[in-house]
Specification:
Layout: E1 5-7, E2 11-14, E3 18-21, H1 28-36, E4 45-47, H2 51-57, H3 62-71, H4 75-82, H5 88-111
Antiparallel strand pairs: 1-4, 2-3
């Protein structure tokens, strides 16, 4: 539970973060640490309607934004994160991620 991210309720022992009790409200700092992790480590977090405003206030480096884009699970999430940076490299990373997500969607649709 966080104001800026959807976190699946539960008690987690997360590498590089420690024990997280998501049955209670999670601090903004902890939620941001969880969101920055690779989704293979902590897949139970997704952005919500308040995420963009929160991330803009964090003044993230281009490298951090690029890593978050690489971890994104949906096209909407990539587009949301792309609004955080004007950096050309970040834009290219976002384009590649969007293409891979679109190709995965098209491949899934073709198989059905």
């Amino acid at each position: 539970m966080s104001d800026f991210f959807h976190i699946k309720p539960g008690i987690y022992d997360v590498p590089k973060v420690g024990k997280v009790d998501a049955l209670q409200p999670v601090s903004d700092e902890t939620a941001l640490k969880l969101y920055k992790l690779r989704r293979g480590i902590f897949p139970w977090i997704t952005p919500n309607e308040n995420t963009l405003a929160f991330l803009k206030k964090q003044k993230l480096k281009a490298e951090d934004i690029a890593l978050m884009i690489q971890n994104a699970q949906t096209e909407t999430e990539v587009e949301l994160l792309l609004e955080l940076s004007k950096n050309k490299t970040v834009k290219r990373i976002a384009e590649v991620k969007l293409n891979s997500l679109q190709n995965a969607t098209n491949k899934t649709n073709a198989e059905n």
